Amino acid sequence: MLIGVADWNDGMNRVGIEGKGESVWLAWFLITTLRKFAIHADRRGDAQARDEMLAKADGYAEAIDRTAWDGEWYRRAYFDDGSPLGSRTSDECKIDSIAQSWSVISGGGRPDRARQAMQSLNKYLVRDDARLIMLLTPPFDKTTHDPGYIQGYLPGVRENGAQYTHAALWVVLATALQGDGNRAFELFQMLNPITHAIDAKSVEVYKVEPYVVAADVYTAKGHLGRGGWTWYTGSASWMYRSALEAILGFQQQGEKLFIKPCIPDKWKGFTIEYRFRSSTYEITVENPDGMQCGNVELTVDGRAVEEAVDLIDDGKHHRVTASLRSSPSAAPERAEKARL
What we know:
Elements: E1 22-23, H1 24-43, H2 47-67, E2 77-78, E3 84-85, E4 95-96, H3 97-105, H4 111-125, E5 126-127, E6 132-133, E7 136-137, E8 163-164, H5 165-177, H6 181-191, H7 200-206, E9 216-217, H8 233-247, E10 250-253, E11 256-259, E12 269-276, E13 279-286, E14 295-300, E15 303-305, E16 309-310, E17 317-325, H9 330-339
Helix pairs in contact: 1-2, 1-3, 3-4, 3-5, 5-6, 5-8, 6-8
């Protein structure tokens, strides 16, 4: 997929400046988009459009696995001259976060490679000492293979090797989609700004407001863990979705509500109160078996229901119980649903 003058990371604006460079991440994103539109085409009875989109998505997935696998993770892009970016052969930016997380989010990556890619992400990009998730490493500094204005940032600032929270939250989402509730919540708490201001020492390091989301958190020498610019709505919305939809599993589609949690196995349960128009739904999620994810047994006002809650605007108070039960195939099921 041609990167043009950049993809999600607009700082990589010279990777494809001559019109030949390609983005691996953009291909993952296109796979996701094509498959979602295929669902709508199918609902409209347009089988030809559905099949064309699914075939294109499968073709992109096959091309990525054939050309962009670097041995332990997925490459990020290719320059105009064909040189890889985000490869073990790269002098800088050997691994980039979003090429790994979206192999899971898109459902396009081969399961074994997607697992390996996420393991590499955790190994090289998660800084447990500073409690942050880097976008890429090592940062751009002296390379003569010009990636764009991203290299104009100091190493360890903003997209150039710092935590870029928007992308870091995709790591949380991908981890939850893999069925690892323990790690998903651990990573979420690394990004939670409140946890960076729990005492005077952490406040002195973080320096910015702990009640809003920072766009970036520095890894630059002498500034490790310092928050960058704040009130970043793009990251705030993904933090909300990652917590509510990916971890707590609260997923509303039209007038149907699905409860598909992926939580730490030590959690015994949690509650959500949700107002749907004039009605109120009191939702209790129970985890008696100490699961991270699995089958969910649903009841609405004491009546068993299959798969989803039908939301009704009747002005009444409804009680929903969701019991998380053991299921050997739980994690693969979540991955397949992510694919769709």
